[in-house]
Design a protein that fits this description.
Blueprint: H1 2-13, E1 25-32, E2 38-45, E3 55-63, E4 72-84, E5 92-98, E6 103-106, E7 114-120, E8 126-133, H2 134-137, E9 145-149, H3 155-165, H4 173-181
Antiparallel strand pairs: 1-2, 1-9, 2-3, 3-4, 4-5, 4-6, 5-7, 7-8, 8-9
Helix pairs in contact: 3-4
Length: about 180
Amino acid sequence: MKSLLSLILLLCFSQFQSQLKKVDIADFYNWTADNGTHYQFILLSENFAKLDTAIPAVIRVRYSTDGGVTYKTAEYDANLILNQDKKSAGDLVININAGKTARIIQGDGGYTPDNFILYYDKDGNFLRGYQADHTELAKSDVVYAKVFHTPAPTADQMRSLIRLFYKSSDAIYRDLMMLAAQYD
């Protein structure tokens, strides 16, 4: 009984959700909201198996509401769907559909999960992206923020970016560092 309770507590309080079985992709992006708040996020997911099939992902967002004096971090589950861009031959579109709620990792307050549309060319190079949270999507005239890719071409740069979002005590930290080591 004691071990069952421990297992239930571990599953309930785990910061890394069990729906994501393996991290094959770690990518970094940023955007600035209309109010001037700058957001950074890391997208973690499995590899895409085929087009038009949802795969699990975890998004961790880091932002500051006081000009960079303190930072807040939120995390939420999402599903990614990869499709061909119907408007451009060969380009790809990733729709990121956020879960309903976010978990606050650092700081206080709440966070409304974000949805993204990211465009890539056929070689996997980022072209453009857009963001809107659930609140914005509920409006009849949705306003999207432009999303920019944060490059991490070397293992050291990737490790530095990972450390902005994850601590060495996080369960997924070792896996992320192993992923970064592939760029050494």
